[in-house]
Amino acid sequence: MSAETIHEPRYTEEIVPFLAGDGRALHLVHLRGVEKADKGPVVLVHGAGVRGNIFRAPVRQTVVDALIEDGYDVWLENWRASMDVEPGEWTLDQAAVLDHPPAIRTVREKTGADKIKAVIHCQGSTSFTMAAVAGLLPEVDLIISNAVSLHPVVPATAKVKLHYAVPLVAQLTPFLDPQWAYGGPTRTARMLTRVVQATHHECENLVCRWTSFTYGTGFPVLWRHENLNAQTHDWLQHEFGPVPFSFFKQMDQCVRAGHLVPVEGFRALPEDLGVREPQTDARFVFFAGEENRCFLAESQRRSFEHLEHFHPGRHALHLLPGYGHLDVFMGKRASQDVFPLILSELDRSALH
């Protein structure tokens, strides 16, 4: 991991609050470039236990920089899984029905745009995709999904961990938090940190090791170390927060079923949304790191084939050799290997 020159961002930042369907206070971060954004709004949706800031790692060019420089109006959505909102238990269903639709409506109201594009990652991707295929996001015409969407597939060892370890640990604590690396508030938290120290030796960054313990099985799970510069590996210590077991229990059901499974009983989410024809005209572009140890690339391949079955030739799949999970966005070479693909898909859609 080497150091590199980081440039100051060329945009301003505005917090735009909105209310979820159950009244929970959430917000968007509007990033406005110095040039006119004539290609319309793009909403970026983060994964579990992080925040919108995860798309702004200390690299030479972030995906936010690339989008703004290409003429897009960028919005980061902080939904209920964000470190930057009031913590609590949540499910993918809640995000799909209560968070993403009002977030998209807020962007439409603020911009006046008829159509919105989205770049979605991990559990932001699963929940956003749930909303889209259930017909809850008619304003979104292009969805670029990374890592996992409708069909979660995990390594065999991670499946065992979900099936057996999650129920046991959930009896001791309602959530896991990589920030416990700095001193857990409870005996259980401190005990789990000792487990992480004893079982993960892949680097000196204990938060990095904690994320691998939290999100699957691997050394590490969420990125390949060789893809990160030194600044990013240090920076990520402050970018991971609590994740409730309500989510892990739902993901266990989804992995068992082979597709997303609603658990809350919302009428807006059909029980078979992972197999029925999607109720959306949006074009999907699936990205997957071939070395992803959190969700295997097969996850995105299955979702691509599922959607292509109903609308052949509409969607796209990009498999990224040498990439894992989050390094697709924060890798030191992502601006050369990944972002041009994202921009080309966005620009292709903008021309139609």
From TrEMBL:
Any GO molecular function: oxidoreductase activity
Gene3D superfamilies in alphabetical order: alpha/beta hydrolase
Pfam family, one: Abhydrolase_1
SUPFAM superfamilies reported for this sequence: alpha/beta-Hydrolases
Source organism, top-level taxon: Bacteria
Cofactor(s) needed by this chain: FAD
Positions of the AB hydrolase-1 domain: 41-181
InterPro entries linked to this entry: AB_hydrolase_1, AB_hydrolase_fold, Cholesterol_Oxidase
Keyword entries, A-Z: FAD, Flavoprotein, Oxidoreductase
Family named by the database record: Belongs to the GMC oxidoreductase family.
Full protein name: AB hydrolase-1 domain-containing protein
Source species of the chain: Corallococcus coralloides (strain ATCC 25202 / DSM 2259 / NBRC 100086 / M2) (Myxococcus coralloides)
Lineage, broadest ranks: Bacteria, Pseudomonadati, Myxococcota, Myxococcia, Myxococcales
